[in-house]
Amino acid sequence: MVNLIRPTMEIDALLNVTPQEIAEQLLTRRKVLREQLPNIIKTLDGESESLSPKVIKLKEKNDKNKIEISRHKERRDGLQTEARVLLDEIKLIQEELSNSGNMINLDPKWKKERMWEELQDIEFKIQTMALDQKSEKKMIEARKRILQQNEEWLKERKVSNPKMAIYIEKRKKMNALYKDADKSHLEMIKRVQKGEPIHAKYIVTKDEFIDINRQKDRAKELFKNSDRDVLFWENKISGGLEDLLQPANDVKNGSPSTFVSKKKSINKIKLSKPIIKGDEEE
After folding, report:
1. Which residue in 12, 66, 86, 257 has the fewest CB atoms around it within 10 Å?
2. Helices (H) and strands (E) in the chain — how many of each?
3. Predicted confidence (pLDDT) per residue in 148-195, tens digit
4. What is the pTM of this model?
5. Cα 203 from chain centroid?
6. Where along the chain do its domains lie?
7. E strand or H helix at 131, and its extent?
8. Residues 6 or more apart in contact with residue 53 via CB below 8 angstroms
9. CA–CA separation, 116 vs 107, rounded Å?
10. What whole-number distance in Å separates Cα of residue 267 and Cα of residue 264?
11. What is the CATH topology of the domain spanning 17-104+161-263?
């Protein structure tokens, strides 16, 4: 990056320099700058062109990741909202069932255990015994029949206690919604962690790009006015510096400085403002 910071002088050395010498140094500075500025602008242009595609590419990646984060967040929030609605409904149904004495399990533990024992027994025989096709078919039909009986039994229980069936279905749906919401949340966190270095690099590169373009614009403005500035100091040196030194000579002769004059003018304006009634105590 090109450095446009001007060189500085020590205070004591500066005080010993005559106005004529200062003017000549300023003129030299303006001439040197006029010669250097085209190369400075060219260098800055090259740096800007080099960074531009990098900034665009990083911005695209950063924006894409932000969209994915937003998508997962919206899905998570939507699922959680839907699940919370079901949770409130479930609480009401549970309270109603408890008060009516109908809070029973649709599928008691003993029923599940007996069903699984029968199914495991059939599966064991199919896998370990040398059965002919007829016997194997009977075993498969028996397994199918047990499952069918269980479904019919559950259906009967649901018909006899529909509120309980609604309660169970809502709980299943709520659990599924929360699980899906957790998955979306984990995906969102992954995207955030993945996007952090991309976002940081984008910000640094973008700031560097903006700074280079500011320097370039400043350099172009200086070059645009360089001929005018050189001519100004050439005329001042050849025509004399009296007009520039006039304020300093006035102070030497006892006149107030422009700073003091301005301060007095500001104080005079403040004192001349009318006092608004109500601002003072009666």
Report:
1. 12
2. 8, 0
3. 776 676 676 667 677 777 877 888 888 899 999 999 998 999 999 999
4. 0.58
5. 10
6. 17-104+161-263
7. none
8. none
9. 13
10. 5
11. Helix Hairpins (1.10.287)
